[in-house]
Design goal:
By secondary structure, the protein is an all-alpha fold. It is built from 19 helices and no strands. It starts with a helix and ends with a helix. It is found in: Cell membrane.
Length: about 425
């Protein structure tokens, strides 16, 4: 909080370009962000306990509750006569506090180990190991946070708040489309950690490869029709679509797709626990996109070059993760690239190209959006099954579908009786 407050002093005194009549609202929003970050950090141990117990039911309930609260905030902000920006920021901070309190009360009541008892749990060697891990993790997470917030600051410095509006829309679209893959990874992460903890390295690597593939395919399924019909979708959603919003959204989704391939590998490296060199290298690499983007903007390049640079960063960072996955986890690089990366990329490109066909013969409207969505879903199922999965994965998928069909048939027969 001290670091953020110190940064805020400089940001609001000469760095950010904010209209004078909105400066107070911007400062209030910044304080709400600091408060939300504080309570977000406090909730980390409770999230860890929930994930360790694989309590996906609570994760789902909290996810639904968060969505309902956000809907309520949106309805309130739409109808209130009070400053809408201040209302939004304040209520989002309150939501972070409410969710923390629910997690805290639930964990203290449900799990015996969730208690503050220094004498009982004090273990110098364990604290030292956990402190080292937490310290290096903090280096990685803080550098990522600076890079993420830095994007908006750099764009604001060169192009003003209008371009920040386009960036905000891109982040909203990206966040919503990534929800399914993020939830799947949340359910997968405890399994990766437990497999490594039990000494089952081979099982962990299989889960890692399958997780990379499935998270990519889940996001691809959601992204492909949106990538194609982005101008029409944003036109339906927004009264006035900001300049660069469409290109920002498309480039950010491509960046996210690239990152999906390496996220489970990063989880595996953390499960092994030897993260110092990985976090140092990753943190150094994280700052380069901002520096390069600053240079491009200084030379007069358009704002979308920020995301072009970050796509390049996503590719380099994935390569770095694969390298350390090979070093610390025994990840077979060529096998992973051939079975996961290439299969995912070729499947995505094939579905994308086939789904573009309706654009060649139909005008932009709701009918074309429905046709693109339906055809991309059909192409996706066929191509991902043929290209995306290897023989072993197809056998596993066939067994899963067969058992599901038998179960469904039994339930239908019971209903008939």
């Amino acid at each position: 909080m001290l670091l953020l407050e110190g940064a805020g002093f400089f940001l609001f005194n000469g760095v950010l370009e904010i209209p004078e009549n909105r400066l107070y609202a911007a400062k209030v929003i910044f304080q709400c962000m600091v408060l939300s970050t504080f309570f977000g950090i406090l909730s980390v141990p409770y999230n860890a306990v929930i994930n360790a117990h694989e309590n996906m039911f609570l994760v789902a309930v909290l996810g639904v509750l968060e969505a309902l609260i956000k809907l309520g905030i949106a309805l309130y902000v739409t109808n209130t006569s009070f400053d809408k920006l201040i209302s939004y920021g304040s209520l989002m901070a309150v939501m972070a506090i409410i969710l923390l309190l629910i997690r805290r009360v639930y964990c203290h009541l449900k799990y015996n180990e969730v208690t503050i008892n220094v004498k009982k749990y004090f273990d110098r060697s364990l604290f030292k190991e956990m402190g080292s891990f937490a310290g290096w993790s903090f280096l990685g997470s803080s550098s990522s946070m600076i890079a993420n917030y830095g994007q908006g600051i750099v764009l604001n410095m060169f192009f003003g708040p209008r371009v920040n509006a386009a960036q905000g829309i891109a982040n909203q679209v990206s966040g919503q489309l990534s929800a399914f893959s993020t939830t799947m990874l949340s359910a997968l992460n405890p399994g990766i950690a437990k497999s490594e903890g039990a000494g089952k390295r081979g099982s962990m690597l299989k889960m890692t490869a399958m997780g990379s593939k499935m998270s990519f395919f889940l996001l691809s399924f959601m992204c492909i029709p949106v990538l194609i019909e982005m101008p029409y979708i944003l036109g339906l959603w927004l009264k006035d679509v900001p300049a660069y919003a469409v290109v920002f959204c498309r480039l950010l989704l491509i960046k996210n797709l690239i990152e999906q391939l390496s996220i489970p590998v990063s989880t595996s490296i953390k499960a092994v626990g030897n993260i110092r060199d990985f976090q140092i290298a990753s943190s150094i690499l994280t700052f380069f996109p901002l520096i390069i983007s600053f240079g491009f903007f200084f030379l007069g390049y358009p704002p979308y070059f920020l995301y072009v640079v970050f796509i390049g960063y996503a590719i380099l960072n994935s390569g770095l993760i694969f390298k350390y996955g090979n070093k610390y986890c025994g990840l077979a690089l060529w096998s992973f690239i051939k079975n996961v990366v290439l299969r995912c990329v070729f499947s995505f490109l094939a579905v994308l190209l086939l789904s573009l066909i309706p654009q060649l013969v139909l005008d932009e409207d709701g009918i074309r959006l429905l046709i693109v969505t339906g055809s991309s879903g059909l192409f996706f199922i066929i191509i991902v099954y043929v290209i995306g999965f290897n023989k072993q994965e197809k056998n596993w998928l066939n067994m899963l579908l067969k058992s599901f069909a038998i179960s469904l048939k039994e339930k239908l027969s019971i209903v008939k009786i």
